[in-house]
Amino acid sequence: MWKKFTYSIIFSKKVVSLRQINNIIMRKLFISIIMLSMSLAGMAQSKVYFTKEITPESLVRIYKALGREAKGRVAVKISTGEGGNNHYLKPDFIRPLVEEVHGTIVECNTAYGGSRATSEKHWQTIHEHGFDSIFVVDLMDEFGEMKIPVRDHTHLKYDIVGDHLARYTFMINLAHFKGHAMGGYGGVLKNQSIGVASTHGKAYIHSAGYTDDVRDAWNHTQNQDGFLESMAAAAQGVADYFGDNILYINVMNNMSVDCDCDGHPAKPELQDMGIMASLDPVALDWACVEKVFNYQGKPGDDNKPLIERINSRHGTHTIDWAEKIGMGSKKYVIVDLDKKKK
Predict the structure, then answer these.
(1) Residues 29, 94: one domain?
(2) How far apart are CA 12 and CA 180, in angstroms?
(3) 76 and 202 share a domain?
(4) Residue-wise pLDDT tens digits, 271-292
(5) Model confidence pLDDT, tens digit, residues 10-39
(6) Is 185 helix (H, G, I), strand (E, B) or coil?
(7) Segments forming the whole domain that contains residue 107
(8) CATH number, domain at 275?
(9) CA–CA dist 39, 331 (Å, integer)
(10) Quick check: 99 and 314 in contact, CB under 8 A?
């Protein structure tokens, strides 16, 4: 009859059984595997595509490089530009892309005075800027609005958007990257939050969830970080609405410190940089910001005014918050399409 023996060895000046050693080894192996998995996950980087060329052809090329076909009822979200502003993305520039995807230009009315505060005025501006002579254009909140869920309830209970959003099954978020008087900068996150929100929705975001009353909202804009965080939450709400049926493009030209919503914008002091695109809006906006911040400026090509505008409004907080609530990652790798072209 076999007897059970407990073999022991000296381990760290203690008597430890082989079974205990085996448990220690397995525990350390398990921890190592977990740490390796976390490390590999941390190494995962979103792809941000880039081209220096700012042409209608390069816009189509960078869209195709993303590998996500826009199909179904495609909304192309742009800014139609305030009257008096000439920095917005021009119809002739975006035309081949919009035609490629059989898209509809979509916009919403603003929450301040100006040439786009009402549908009547907005349609006039759209006509003056040449969009309706080339494209089908839809003012999504012209006849109503609807609420869509948001995951982050720090400030917002929901996002209020134009009810025509329900018409579309895919969105191309085509943003003009530049400065912004309140947000510090404007890119795809702003274009998808403030840009897709109805007039009441804009008031709700600007007041960090205090009110959707346009007349009262501007009395409650003291919470700057709350406003930026509300933009991130609203942008995520739109992203969740479309799921995988959305993609993001930033055009880095005419980079004034002021937004396309400004009827009297400052002259751009920074030269055009190119087009960037990604399936990750957080990575995309961050890549554009870093490109501006890391640029070696010179007389006549100065990045300092735009950097000052972004920093003075704590603008990068929108990106940080969007990452925090799980909308995307600031970790990215640049895919240079110009090198591939060669």
Answers:
(1) no
(2) 63
(3) yes
(4) 999 999 999 999 999 999 999 9
(5) 444 445 466 666 666 666 665 555 555 544
(6) strand
(7) 46-341
(8) 3.40.50
(9) 13
(10) no
Taking alpha carbons only, the member of 232, 94, 116 closest to residue 172 is 94
pLDDT tens digits, one per residue of 124-136: 999 999 999 999 9
Token pair for 134: 């080339």
Q: CA 88 to CA 100: how far, in whole Å?
A: 21
- Is 122:107 a contact under the CB 8 Å cutoff? yes
Strand 145-148 versus strand 14-17 pairing type: unpaired
Neighbours of 337 (CB within 10 A): 20
Collapsed DSSP state (helix, strand, coil) of residue 333: strand
Is 220 exposed, middle or buried (CB count within 10 Å of its CB: 0-12, 13-18, 19+)? middle
Cα angle 100, 57, 336 (rounded to 5 degrees) comes to 115
Q: Residue for token digits 């006039």? A: 124
Q: Round to whole Å and give the CA distance between 286 and 152.
A: 20
Per the structure, the count of domains in the chain is: 2
DSSP structural state of residue 253: -
- Name the token pair of 106: 């979509």
Residues 94 and 222 in one domain: yes
The continuous run of DSSP H or E covering 336 comes out as strand 332-336
Residues 6+ apart with CB under 8 A from 281: 173, 188, 189, 192, 235, 239, 248, 322, 327, 328
Residue with tokens 């501007």: 218
Residue with tokens 């035309």: 95
Question: What SS3 state is found at 324?
Answer: helix
The answer to whether 260 touches 178, Cβ cutoff 8 Å, is: yes
Distance CA 145, CA 198 (A): 6
